[in-house]
Amino acid sequence: MQFKDILGQKAVKDQLISIVHQNRLSHALLFLGKPGSGALPLALAFSQYMVCTSAHPKPEATLPVFENLPANVAADSCGICAACLKANKLIHPDIHFSYPVISKKPGEKPKSTDFIGDWREFIAGYPYGTIYDWLQFIDAENKQGNIYSAEVEDINHKLSLKSFESQYKILLIWMPEFLGREGNKLLKLIEEPPPDTLFIFVAEDENAILPTILSRTQLVKIPCLSDKEIEDALISRGGVEEIKARQIAGVCEGNYREALQLLQHAEEDWQSLAREWLNAILKSGPLAQVKWIDEMSRLGREKQKQFLRYFIHLLQQAIRLRLVSGNSLHIPANEKDFAERLNRICNLPAQEAMINEFDKGTWYIERNAHAKMLFHALTIRLFHIIKDNSLILVN
Q1: Separation of alpha carbons 103 and 87, rounded Å
Q2: Other residues' Cβ atoms within 10 Å of the Cβ of residue 162
Q3: Which of the listed residues 111, 124, 128, 193 has the most CB atoms within 10 Å of its CB?
Q4: Dihedrals phi, psi of 121, to nearest 5 degrees
Q5: Ranges of the chain with pLDDT below 50
Q6: CB 356 within 8 A of CB 312
Q7: Dist. CA 26–CA 200, nearest whole Å
Q8: How far apart are CA 198 and CA 193, in angstroms?
């Protein structure tokens, strides 16, 4: 994978190239970015850049600090040398991968290499995928992914060997949040690595990483993508119509993976589903609520999550209408009408409380919550939020 294949993130790409050519590269980097920001693709592209035979010859002297790359510095890997071709297929002998896996049999001690075929296929098809996508891809069902002790022992063994082709031996650890206490076994290796060894951690939540590992890494923050970057990508890469691309970009909150998922379900009438839910809660009563919950529970986790994300978007549109003059906002007519109705039935604190509940709901869905129980609980909470504001202060 090359930097040019990655959506946006120009400042981060320039930063990575700069630290290499200014001899400021740490032996351990932490790529920290929210889902869909492109942290994993950036780490893969950087790994390829480091093994490329023509991208970064050693300078005779340290280059000065620069904002824009000088003309004599390669801004990307070449993509055509033998090292690049291997790195692009994830088969370079000096680039090793570690990621959460599952135990298929009781007592089994799985390693990342046991799933390397799945990993290559997953990266080829879902470079912006999440840990949820990965576990579904390897048929984890309700099993929890982990980086086990056998994996840590395998890492120690791999990095004790000399590099085969490249100057660097690279270990890319995706989701170090799943290391747990096993990560302590890596501390000595990270603190005193073999020569020309590079650790690249790719994470979403720094609070879930062992502090002892966190303190030994050089942080590279990956910001969320802008709405404009996602909109342009959907138009240029997916051939999406401009209006639809703008709507999807506005809903996905800088998450390109979410934008692609929304694109798959672009024909779903989430607004009608939201209207039915509110009518069942506020007018029709328990029988209509039970019927709606049964229908929602049959949609599947991905669609359930997309629905809640879209409802959050409608609530955000309602808040914008409340705070900004409607004439200055570019909101589709159908969404504007729905948002105005939301403003009539609930106040600003209620809308904020609903957004909070839906956000937690998507979190529970990703962790295999029982759909009927979840949406039944949300229905009760929405009733009290809208009718008597009883949950607003709690949230």
Answers
A1: 28
A2: 9
A3: 128
A4: -65, -40
A5: 57-72, 390-395
A6: no
A7: 10
A8: 8
